[in-house]
């Protein structure tokens, strides 16, 4: 590919980007907010396995506990954690931080019987 062709391709891409930027400027949408909405999930999700564990182990998962887990995941993410063990009053949760997904849940009766592996961080809520 010749330098002239590359230059023309880059100019075309630049023009396309400028057109997109102008389209969004008039909408009042903040780019950072748009990016967060599209890229970063807003709330922690629960895998099917975690939902089954929560149900079978009788773990009470109310709005307040979900908010605490969500905050803990944000805190762990801000410090570079990838897989976290989050301890609550009567339960614990293993969370994949990047996908913001609770992988499994443990009730307090099972704490002493379990070994937790493949985690790089922990939080107490």
Task: Walk me through what this model shows.
With 125 residues, the protein is of the alpha/beta class. It has two domains: 3-39; 45-124, no CATH class. It contains four helices and five strands. A five-stranded mixed sheet has the order 1-4-3-2-5. A hairpin with a 4-residue loop joins β3 and β4 (101-107). It starts with a helix and ends with a strand. 19% of the residues are buried. The mean pLDDT is 83.
Q: Which structural class should the secondary elements be placed in?
A: alpha/beta
Helix content: 40-55%
Largest sheet: 5 strands, mixed
How many E strands?
A: 5
Shape: elongated
Oligomer: single chain
Radius of gyration: 22 Å
Question: What's the SSE pattern?
Answer: HHEHHEEEE
Enumerate the strands of the largest sheet in spatial order, edge to edge or round the barrel: 1-4-3-2-5
Low-confidence stretches: none
Q: What percent of residues are in strands? A: 15-25%
How many individual helices? 4
Mean pLDDT score: 83
Number of domains: 2
Distance between the termini: 57 Å
Brief synopsis:
The protein is an alpha/beta fold and 125 residues long. 46% of the residues lie in helices and 19% in strands. It has helices at residues 3-25, 31-39, 48-56, 63-78, and strands spanning 45-46, 83-87, 91-96, 101-107, 121-124.
């Amino acid at each position: 590919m010749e330098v002239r062709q590359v230059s023309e391709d880059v100019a075309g891409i630049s023009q396309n980007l400028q057109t997109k930027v102008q389209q969004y400027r008039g909408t009042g949408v903040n780019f950072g907010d748009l990016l967060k909405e599209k890229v970063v999930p807003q709330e922690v999700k629960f895998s099917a396995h975690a939902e089954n564990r929560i149900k079978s182990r009788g773990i009470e998962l109310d709005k307040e506990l979900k908010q605490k887990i969500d905050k803990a995941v944000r805190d762990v993410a801000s410090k570079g954690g990838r897989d976290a063990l989050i301890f609550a009053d009567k339960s614990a949760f293993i969370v994949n931080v990047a996908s913001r997904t609770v992988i499994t849940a443990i009730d307090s009766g099972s704490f002493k019987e379990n070994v937790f592996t493949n985690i790089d961080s922990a939080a107490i809520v």
